[in-house]
Write a structure and sequence with these properties.
Elements: E1 3-8, H1 20-24, E2 29-33, E3 39-41, E4 47-52, E5 55-63, E6 71-76, H2 82-98, E7 103-106, E8 109-112, H3 116-132, E9 142-146, E10 151-155, H4 156-164, H5 168-179, E11 184-185, E12 189-192, E13 199-206, E14 211-214, E15 230-239, E16 244-250, H6 251-258, E17 264-265, E18 270-273, H7 278-287
Helix pairs in contact: 2-3, 3-4
Length: 296
């Protein structure tokens, strides 16, 4: 159940501004989403996502700016974990205390901090109930969920199992396990050739960086274009040691070079590519020194 909470500070004079610390409580992490719905840590310009680093789920969001005094809107997305829900209501209580109020609005209904235990239970039950009935709503074999750090593709059967077994803890642990490792989620930047007008996508793979990558090229959801519109996908091989791109090669050539290496499945669409050594990256780059790219 998506939740929108609006908290207002009463009165006209001597209003107390909210600080970022009031939202994080010294523990929560935060950032903003990039074009691929990947979190850019510690940024606050625009819609800010907050998450608990001990229980990384879907997170919650608000539009933060300095000197907030009148009202703040907090949002929790659908299918949030029980820890996301707890984070939302704990933040709500902190803000209410600071602004000396017991009232707030939730989805257009006026409630108080004393209603929070019941509201929290309702939100958690809604999520599990949806998963129990997920086959009535989702026909695909997997469901794409924008989580706190990056998108997750979760098998529909697994979500149904969480619901049938009323396993809210298992669902929370699954989302945390998917996001708690130090990984880079690779997505292509889409460019358009000034000369030909054709669209092409370029991934960046850096040496020594464990990377989540699809074995088939994909288009970031925010681009809003079918993959068929993209004429060319490539991989830029970036050496951390040399501080430059060694070569840019066709996506299919890059996959051919790495496919024999042991790689752990991340989900049914992605694998985890262990960080390429500087030597391995240089070896691959040397095979494709003049890889053809669309004219810009």
């Amino acid at each position: 159940m998506a939740i929108e909470i609006i908290i207002r500070q009463k009165g006209f004079f001597h209003k107390v501004p909210l600080e970022l610390e009031d939202l994080t409580d010294g523990h929560l992490e935060y950032g903003v989403m990039d074009f691929g719905y990947r979190l850019v840590p510690r940024e606050t310009e625009g819609v800010v996502v907050f998450y608990d680093p001990d229980h990384i789920g879907r997170g919650m969001e608000t539009t933060y700016e300095e000197n907030i005094k009148d009202r703040i809107v907090l949002r929790l997305p659908d299918f949030s974990t029980k820890y996301d829900t707890a984070m939302l209501y704990e933040m709500t209580k902190r803000i209410c205390r600071k602004w000396d109020t017991e009232e707030f609005e939730q989805n257009g209904r006026r409630v108080t901090v004393f209603d929070i235990p019941e509201l929290k239970d309702q939100a958690e039950e809604f999520c599990m109930d949806y998963f129990r009935q997920i086959r009535n709503f989702v026909r695909e074999d997997r469901m794409v969920i924008t989580a706190a750090l990056w998108p997750l593709r979760i098998p529909t059967d697994l979500l149904e199992k969480f619901g049938t077994e009323n396993d809210a803890e298992g669902y929370a642990q699954y989302l945390h396990a998917c996001q708690s490792r130090d990984l880079y989620y690779a997505l292509p930047v889409i460019y358009q050739s000034r000369r030909t007008g054709e669209l092409f996508g370029v991934y960046a793979i850096s040496s020594g960086t464990d990377t989540i990558i699809s074995l088939e090229p994909e288009v970031p959801a925010s681009v809003g274009l079918p993959k068929e519109r993209i004429s060319f996908f490539a991989v830029s091989l970036v050496s951390i040691q040399e501080k430059k791109a060694l070569s840019t090669i066709r996506f299919e050539d890059f996959i051919e070079e790495i496919k024999e290496d042991p790689m752990e499945a991340y989900d049914d669409c992605h694998v985890i590519l262990p960080g390429l050594s500087e030597e391995k990256m240089a070896e691959i780059a040397s095979k494709y020194p003049g890889a053809e790219m669309p004219a810009e």
